Every structure is written in structure tokens, then in C-alpha cells.
Amino acid sequence: MTRTSATGSGRRPTTLLVIGDTRYTVEDGRWHTLVALSKQLDVWFAEFDRVVIAAHLQPGAPPPDHRCLDHQNIDFVPLRSAGGTGLRAKADVGLALLSWVRVLVPLMGRATAVHLRTPCNVTIAAIPLARVLSRNRYAIYADNWEPLGVEPVSYRIQRWMLRHFKGVVHAYAPPNEDLPAHIRPNVSPSFAESELEALIPDVTRRVDQLRADPAARRPLRICSVASFSVRKNQSAIIRAAAVLKQRGIPVQLRFAGSGATQAAARSLVADLGLGAEVEFLGQIGRDAVIALFAWADVNVLVGFAEGFGKVFLEGMALGCPAVCGPGRMQRAIIGAGARGRQADPSDPTDIADALEDLRNLPIDRQVEMVLACRAYVAGFTTEAFAHDIQDIIRRVWALPPPDPAGDLRR
User: Fold this and answer.
1) Each residue of 364-391: pLDDT tens digit?
2) Is the domain 193-377 a CATH 2.60.40.10 member?
3) In CATH, what class is 15-189+381-396?
4) pTM of the full predicted structure?
5) CB 180 within 8 Å of CB 145
């Protein structure tokens, strides 16, 4: 990596070190990562002269759910991949930890600030290292902060370490949660204020359609956007659709995403005779996801444990209410019923009940829910997130802004 000893103003350049298992891609020399995450990182990267990313490099062209980062002041240090289930995979993680430590120690020693994206295998080592080696340290715990008993042991260990991190931690927790002083409730942004403004016509159309073509007089349109996994629990949504069909309620269910349990989900659809009702869209791009939320009456993700559930925020930007799983964070997202419903992920009938309840609400109540969704999202824009990050960097860490001459920016 190339280094410059001083900026145009004579001070040493500030360097942010980002560590995690996020997948990055590169095309024509420009770095890409997951769409919503890229917007968070753009906020961070704009505040430093240079950025070093220690993470996993995904081969090939950027997939549809990746976006080019706005700021390209980046040096990338690829980390060895390791993980999975079984004794061999666990042993491989143990060996990888040693290689990660050898890479991360010198990087931390040279960085002005360290940014950890937890929980993941890499941050098992990175959290204690940052506690010792970095004065300006930050971590985001991008899973459910509330213990639900279904998280991997490694996640619970990292949550415990972050309670003693003594650096700023962003956690997916409700605003009124009783947290240690260094832990801040956080909701990851998906939209800038201008992007929300651009979606107002879609919300207006939703309200008009509710009055002209209510779901109680046609098939209920359900979407679910997530990678397919046991934890995301798509099978329960399929079974809930079967329950609704048995009750005489017609449904259209569309899944976006791919993953380990997708083949099993397709088999379940065939077994339950839902081939005409369920559609698998696969991995789709940002515009197609927005169109899916605009189409849907309800956005459903009833996982066994969820961090924030960013897809709910994205759906609510178009006025689409949610059905979510357990936990205080999820309850806060749906506003204790003002913006959707909670359901038991282990009980398809309970999920079906939640969907039927939303379908049968009086139209005026459904309109209120659309407007409540929009109002909620307005509090979680990229601009609001940037204000919080600037408070950390300027007030807590007392770091200077990046060199205005821009000689270290690419």
C-alpha cells in the first residue's frame, strides 16, 4: 500500500481501518459492496484521508445487490476466508485466526481509527486487538443485540466483549433500551432524504390503490426479501401461505434472494401445491427490489433472530407494512402494531393470522399504517446517520476533517 507522510496542510493523514467479513468486489479498479452497507461506508470514508479495508474479496463481477462506493480512497488487504459448520470448519477458523492476527496487528498500529463490523469470525480476534491497540475504536454489532437464545456462541461472546469494549458501539436496539454508556442504539440507513422524496408518488399510488382495489377483494400480495437460510425461515412463510389458501384467502407470494435453503423451499412449494401462488425471483437488483416493495401489500421476514431487518425500512419507504419475528427491536420497527405485526416464527398459523389481520383492517386504518411507515423511515436517513458518525469522529475522537486539498483522495 502506498503511504503519504503528511497532507497538503502539513499534518499526518488520517486513516480508517475497516475490518469484517463483508464481501467486496472490484471492477475497473473501483470497489463495490452491498448496496445498503455501501451508503454507511460512504459516510465514514468521506471523513478520512484514506481507508484500509481488511476483509474478504469476492471474485468476479459485482452482483446485482452490490453498488460502487462513492469514495475510492481505499487500499484493500484481503483476508483468508474461513467458517462453516463441522469440526473441520471450526479447526480451519482456529488456524485462520492466527493469520488474521498477523495481518491486523500492524494495520491497527498504523491506523488513526479502527472500525469493526461484527459479529463475524474475523472480529473474534479483532475486538480484543482493537481494545489494546487502538485509541479511536468503533464497532457495529449488526445482529440482534437482545439475546434470543438462537445466536451462535461466537456471537454471544462478541456481544459480551463489546459490552467491555470502551469504544463507541452501534447496536440494533430500541431507543429506550437500557445500554452501557458507550453503546448507542442504531438503525442502518438505506435512503438519503432526496431518495425518500422521489418515492412519494409511489406512496400516493399505494394509498389510491388501497381505496380503489383493497386486498380484501383480490389476492393478498406478499413479498419476502432475504438470503435463504434456516434462520431467515422462508419455509414458515410458505406454510403460512398454505394456511391462508385453506381459509379461502387467495395469495401471491414472491421471494427475492438466493441461498442454502432455496431448493428446499421450492420443494415445499411443490409439496403444498402452491406452484401458482409462489414465485422465486432469485437475486435481483436495487430497482427491482423497490418495484417489488411497491407491488406488495405486506413485506414479510419472520426470522428466528434478526438484527434490524433493513428490508423492513426499505419497504416502509414505499408505505409497505411488515410482518416480523420476535424481539424488542422488531417490536420497535413495527411500532407495536402501528406499522405491521409480529408473529411467532415457529408457528405458520400465527404468521397467517398476522397477514389476515392486516388484510382485513378497515381501509382508513390501512392508510394510516402506510403514512406511519413513511414517517418512521424519515427518521433514519443517510443524513441522520452522518450526523451521528460526525459526532463520533469530531467530538468523541477529536479528529480533524480530511485534507481539503484532496491530494490523498482517489
Assistant:
1) 999 999 999 999 999 889 999 999 999 9
2) no
3) alpha beta
4) 0.83
5) no
